[in-house]
Amino acid sequence: MASNQVESIDLVDGQTVRQLSAAVMFAALTAVLAQFSIDLPGGVPFSFQPFAVFFAGLVLGPVWGGFSLTLYFLVGLAGAPVFSNAGAGVGYVLGPTGGFLIGFVVAAALIGFVAHRSLSPGPIEELSPISAAVALLAGLAVIYLAGVPWLASVNGLPLTRAASIMAPFVVGDLIKIGLTVGIVAGGNELLADWR
Amino acid sequence: MLTYTPGSTIVHRLDPRTKLAFQFAFALVAFGTLTLPRLVGLFVIGLGCLHLADLSIRAVLRAYWFVLVVLALGPLIAAITLGPPWLRLDPAVVSLRSVARIVPILFVSAAYIHATPIRETRAAIQRTLPGRVGQLLGVGVALTFRYVPVIRADLRRVRDAIRARNGDTRSLRERSQRLTVLMVVRALRRSDQLAVALQARCFAWNPTLPRLRFSRIDLPVWGLSIGFVAFAAIDLLGF
What we know:
The complex is a heterodimer.
Chain A: H1 14-33, E1 37-39, E2 45-47, H2 49-78, H3 89-93, H4 98-116, H5 129-155, H6 159-185, H7 189-192
Antiparallel strand pairs in A: 1-2
Helix pairs in contact in A: 1-2, 2-4, 2-6, 4-5, 5-6
Chain B: H1 10-13, H2 16-30, H3 36-52, H4 57-63, H5 65-79, H6 89-100, H7 102-115, H8 118-128, H9 131-164, H10 172-200, H11 218-237
């Protein structure tokens, strides 16, 4: 006998669908850029992954920016090879660079909050270069504050030794912040359409 | 690259929630006080998981080579001093003990990845995390997994287009800014398309979830996981 039970459909509202879709795309973008770098003179790789974290916070704001990086983290945890060097799984997260992954999640939320000074993001073209720079520097600080002690703990190193190992990478990340601020300050009419 | 491989091993047949619980409980024990017998025990269990999942150690080592290199550098860096005697053994041993615990966790994690499809993990997330956050995370994980190849193809196209216009000869600033803006714009365009597609398909808060069911083989693994957590708690409290 056919069941007469009917459950009404509780549709997700349009704004949530839109933000979820954007969060998914930034999570996928973070995954793709984690595997992508260009070689600088001397063969030093210039990774693009931080750009995805920065823009997730700047474009999506604290809530959905943080959500987006949480998706990236969970997809990797679930086994998709989305972390650097096609890494995945709980073992990777608990490994030496796991702190940086957790730092990414917090950093995206913090960047969004500092840049927009609100839980809901405003248009990216209205961001001042100074507030963008401050937000990105705060995000970078969080990434290293989470990543370096974790690296020290997992590798059994003194904190100062771990910090000195990571110090050269800070230079590259500061350059990336400068480039991101340049994009924000440059008008970025391509990005202005979306909100 | 380590990815899900269909199979019928006991690890494949376990409920994903059981496997996740086991992984976290195992990691708890690994991060407790580490003695040599306990480390040996962790390796035996880790290797046992690989065996039960029918996964070779070589495949795991190949998949996690980068993590292993970073781990191997730990004791080396710890041993080096910036003055005489230049090399000290004690800090290296402390570091070695610290990094050694990660390897069996990698084994257990690899067995999970090898034996669990993403859609099952998604269902586990959606069923375990309460409310709308859990639903959004579950759907988000599934969609992200689906869109990684799409965004990767976008990146390839953008890179080829830049290269075709002699963009490789431009400065680092120009190259990186152009590529980043184009990728962000493409991602946002795709997100608009995805939003329309989801709404067209009546994306709802109360969808029909994939079916997950505990079976008899999950019981001993849950028992082991609870044992691990109890062991870690006793260790933490110093009994």
